[in-house]
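hey m, so remember when u said the tokens were messed up on ur end? i reran from scratch. heres the input so u can diff it against urs
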Amino acid sequence: MILQIKNTARDLKIRLPDLITRPVGRRMYERTRKSMAHVGDGEVVLVDFSGVQVIDSSFIDEFLLRLIEDSREESPVFFVKLANITPIIETNIDSVFSSYQAYNERRIAVVTESLTAMNSYCIGIISGHERDVLDYLRINRVAALGDIAAFVGMREEDALPLVEGLYGLRVVRREHSGPPGRYEAV
């Protein structure tokens, strides 16, 4: 599913290129969740920010954080991926995610369509091994746990919590069609 943020903003009569304030974030979130009523289990929701220059921390709290939290807690499970984010959007998201982790003692991350300024396809606090797994899956699309473990130089039993942690963050998917123990890029 592709969510065109500029279209949702236009429908709600919100002026672009900036999306700021909690009320705007709440309105965008409520409209987005309604449009996601039929999202399937395991589906990737691509949130396209083309036409948007800036989103502030209040908007991120009310829109993006809530959407990512929903992906972790609700059924069906879905995955959020960001596209066409500007450097300022990336910086603001990273700042909010860092604050979120500091205050909630809970990590949060989201994958991106393009390489970020941090030379990653992910925004959020992740370890070097986790980043390696994300990069490996981005290149290979699907991999068995054994292949991932070999790539990061771990035993399978040590790599499993690492990959399952990434699944819990909803930045990797479990493959549904293949044998168990296979993971996919978002």
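this time it looks ok to me. Helices lie at 5-11, 22-35, 57-73, 87-104, 128-140, 145-152, 156-168. if urs says something different then somethings off w ur setup not the seq
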